[in-house]
Structures are given as C-alpha cells and as structure tokens.
C-alpha cells in the first residue's frame, strides 16, 4: 500500500500543478511545445485516421458499454459490490472531471479541425481511455509476458487518443496531460481504498 500512496501523492501533485498553470494562464509553454509536435491540418493525410481515433474513443460509447457490463454483473452475475466499484471507477471519474471542467472554465483552442463544445480542461476523452486501460490491467493482472504486451498496447492507445485530441485542436496539450493524470490519480485512490477497507478485488 505504501507504493500506492506514493503514486497518489505524485499524481495529485502533478494534477494540481497543471490545474494551477491552466487557471493562472501559465500553461502556454507546455501547450505551444505540444502543438508544435502535434498540430494537424484539415487536408492532411493524417487527419482521417486521427478523426477515427477520436470517434472510437468517444467517452459516451465506453460509458454505455462499461455500464452495461456493470448492470450484468449487478443483476445477472450477482456481483453487486464488484459492479458498484467499477461504476465508481469510471462514472465517478467522469463526474469529477466534468465538475473540474466547469470550475476551471477553460475555453477550447481556436481553429478546431472538428468542432467540439464545452470546456477544455481536463480532456475526458483521454481520461476515459486511460481509465479503461487501467481498469483492464488492474482487473486482469498477471505476471505473464502477454500482460506486458497489453500494458504496452494500452499505453500506446492512451497516447494515440491524447495525440488525436491535440492534433484536431479539440484540446490543449495540458488538457490531455491533465486527463491522463486524473485517471491515474483516481485509479490509485480507488485501489488504495479497495486494499485498505473494501477488499472487493484481490
């Protein structure tokens, strides 16, 4: 549990620093550097597949799928505690991120390639992708070589989703960093609660 507490502390510190930089309008250095690495154009050959990635990572799709699984676990598999824990994991993260978006009130970047509405920090696309990967890795953790492959593929997926959001200028780079960090913080916080008190997942 000590490692989990360290992870919580580090990720909380990073997220708070990012949020303060955004609120005080001092995140431009990170954002300008990120846009210089990953800034798309409407007629670029990369734009269609970046659009596909951002559509595939649509939070509403993953929320519906995972909540259907949770309903199955709750009513059919008779695993109520397990289902509620998973619901808190993803749905709770989305609620927290939405509240933070409203409180921070950061407007999205100009010149979006595909129009997106709402506030910008943190990126819920990135956070949802990271939560889903972290949830899968936590629930099916082994020490096999296949698990290592899944870890790498999961990391690549989260980075690709984050890159697509910046590429399409739907988010600033600091937004996607904030989304990924919030996912890691929330996951470790819930994991600590599970280890310390609930023992739902062994």
Share in β-strands: under 5%
Structural class: mainly alpha
H/E series, N to C?
HHHHHHHH
The biggest beta sheet reads: none
Number of domains: 1
Ranges with pLDDT <50 over ≥5 residues? none
General shape: globular
Q: Termini distance?
A: 13 Å
Topology:
Blueprint: H1 2-23, H2 28-37, H3 47-56, H4 59-75, H5 80-104, H6 124-139, H7 145-167, H8 173-198
Helix pairs in contact: 1-8, 3-7, 4-5, 5-6, 5-8, 6-7, 6-8, 7-8
Describe the 3D structure:
The protein is mainly alpha-helical. It has one domain (2-198). 74% of the residues lie in helices and 0% in strands. The chain has helices at 2-23, 28-37, 47-56, 59-75, 80-104, 124-139, 145-167, 173-198. Helix 6 runs antiparallel to helix 7 and helix 7 (145-167) runs antiparallel to helix 8. The chain is globular. It starts with a helix and ends with a helix. It holds the Pfam family PAP2. Keywords: Membrane, Transmembrane, Transmembrane helix. The chain crosses the membrane at residues 53-75, 82-104, 124-140, 147-168, 174-193. Residues 83-191 form the Phosphatidic acid phosphatase type 2/haloperoxidase domain. This is Phosphatidic acid phosphatase type 2/haloperoxidase domain-containing protein.
Keywords:
8 helices, membrane, PAP2/HPO, 202 residues, Phosphatidic acid phosphatase type 2/haloperoxidase domain-containing protein, mainly alpha, PAP2/HPO_sf, 74% helix
In short:
It is built from 8 helices and no strands.
């Amino acid at each position: 549990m000590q490692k989990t507490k360290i992870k919580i502390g580090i990720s909380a510190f990073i997220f708070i620093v990012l949020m303060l930089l955004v609120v005080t309008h001092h995140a431009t250095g990170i954002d300008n550097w990120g846009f210089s690495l990953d800034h798309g154009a409407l007629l670029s050959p990369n734009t269609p597949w970046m659009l596909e990635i951002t559509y595939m990572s649509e939070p509403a799709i993953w929320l519906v799928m995972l909540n259907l699984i949770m309903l199955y676990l709750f009513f059919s598999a008779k695993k109520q505690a397990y289902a509620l824990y998973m619901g808190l994991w993803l749905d709770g993260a989305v609620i927290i991120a939405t509240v933070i978006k409203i409180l921070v009130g950061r407007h999205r970047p100009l010149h979006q390639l595909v129009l997106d509405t709402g506030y910008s920090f943190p990126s819920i696309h990135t956070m949802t992708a990271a939560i889903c990967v972290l949830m899968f890795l936590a629930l099916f953790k082994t020490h096999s070589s296949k698990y290592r492959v899944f870890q790498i593929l999961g990391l690549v997926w989260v980075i690709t989703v984050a890159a697509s959001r910046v590429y399409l200028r739907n988010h600033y780079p600091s937004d996607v960093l904030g989304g990924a960090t919030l996912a890691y913080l929330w996951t470790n916080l819930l994991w600590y609660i599970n280890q310390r008190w609930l023992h739902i997942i062994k």
